[in-house]
Amino acid sequence: MTLSTREKILIGALAATILVAAALVLVATYTIHNTGRIVTVGLAAFWDPAGTQLCTSIDWGEIQPGGMKGVTLYLKNTQGLNITLSMNTSSWQPPDVQQYFTLAWNYSGALLVPAQMIPVQFTLSLSPLVQNSTNFSFNINLNATQT
């Protein structure tokens, strides 16, 4: 089947329209900025492996829908006992943004002896389903449990 010149022009115009529409969709992104406060119980969080730069907050910067940001913190057992760690989040502002975020870490559940410090990667992911750009904040609660 051979296409006429008119049919080829119509197909080319349709393809160009589809490409322009796809490019516009790719450009429509939202930027969300956050600073998260670090709350620790029974341990300390540092930016550096030497334990000289205490971490009290994380500035996640801009996160695009469907994107993620990661930071490495060095967590030190400040108890005189062996501990394991747990993490949760709280105080989300605005409260409804929590449903769009996932905070993960690579802590394996390993026992930390007194004064031991380990690197832990935290990753904040934002759902691609988020509709509006907004600033937000939340607390990351890191807890030590005696084992």
What does this structure look like?
By secondary structure, the chain is of the alpha+beta class. It has two domains: 1-30, no CATH class; 31-146, Ctag/Cox11 (Pfam 04442). It has one helix at 5-27, and strands spanning 32-41, 43-46, 57-63, 68-77, 83-93, 101-105, 117-126, 136-146. The chain has a four-stranded mixed β-sheet, with no helix packed on it. The longest helix has 23 residues, at 5-27. The chain starts with a helix and ends with a strand. The model is unreliable at 16-33 (pLDDT under 50).
Give the topology, please:
Elements lengths: L4 H23 L4 E10 L1 E4 L10 E7 L4 E10 L5 E11 L7 E5 L11 E10 L9 E11 L1
Question: Which tags fit this structure?
Answer:
four-stranded mixed β-sheet; alpha+beta; 46% strand; Ctag/Cox11 (Pfam 04442); 8 strands; 147 residues; elongated; 1 helix; four-stranded antiparallel β-sheet
